[in-house]
Amino acid sequence: MGYSVIILMCMFLMFPSYSQADSVPGVCDYLIRAHVSIVSWPPIPPPPPHELVYDDGTAYWLTWGGLYRGSCFDPDEFCGGPMLGCIVESMEFWFYHHPDYPWDTSEFYAELWLGGTSAPLCEYDKTQLTATHYSPVSIIYTPSFELSEPFWGFVNLEMSAGGWPSLLGDNSPNFTGEARSFMSDDFIIWEPWIGGEASANLMDLENNSWGSIKGLFR
After folding, report:
1. Which of 28, 52, 65, 152 has minimal Cβ neighbours within 10 Å of its Cβ?
2. Which of 199, 193, 167 lies closest to 26 in space, CA to CA?
3. Nearest to 36 by CA among 132, 125, 148
4. pTM of whole model > 0.70?
């Protein structure tokens, strides 16, 4: 009997991947990217990042939950040094049209706002765009917007009756360990977007070809 207990204890220690914690849903990120230039302090400015990205680069979930879905970007988290401001040149969004969950419209509003992680606070741009399946949908700002605070890029889905077009998201926390992608139904309460939950407006997708598809547009 004693040997059996020891063997069971060894098996538990050797295979920790079956713990309940590994299956608990967590905050994930939408596939929304900001293309920017950084205005830095002289005389030795840090190299400006070309793209601010919180997602892990792999499409895993598609979701049509929430009337507004977006990411809050803090340039300080990417800059690595003191800065004077951030010039937002464009935003990029990735969507997925699943045949079992057809869109009622491909039209949406891409919006750019100032604001921290609690909520967007000040609108800078609102432009109507057309979503496409599994390819980047971008808006180029002409002129660009020079901002000195965290900003939001999000999709406004007021033209849809059901939260479409469906946005893509990843399946892992970002490098900050904190929520950076949020959803809202009333533009007042913004909740972190949680991947991995079973619901009527979230599903996983096959992502084996994601790298090759994404590479076609780089």
Report:
1. 65
2. 193
3. 148
4. yes
Distance in angstroms (rounded) separating the CA atoms of residues 48 and 39:
8
Paired tokens of 174: 């970002």
pLDDT tens sequence across 176-213: 999 999 999 999 999 999 877 545 466 666 544 445 44
DSSP letters spanning the chain: -HHHHHHHHHHHHH-GGGSGGGGS-EE--BSEEEEEEEEE-SSSPPPPPSEE--S-S---EEE--SSEEEEEE-THHHH-S-EEEEEEEEEEEEB---TTS--S-SEEEEEEEE--TT---EEEEEEEEE--BTSEEEEEEEEEEEESS-EEEEEE-TT-SSSPSPEEE-SS--TTSS--EEEESSSS--EE-EET--BTTEEE---TTHHHHHHTT-
Q: Using CA atoms, how far apart are residues 10 and 31, in angstroms rounded to an integer?
A: 41
CB 3: neighbour CB atoms within 10 A? 7
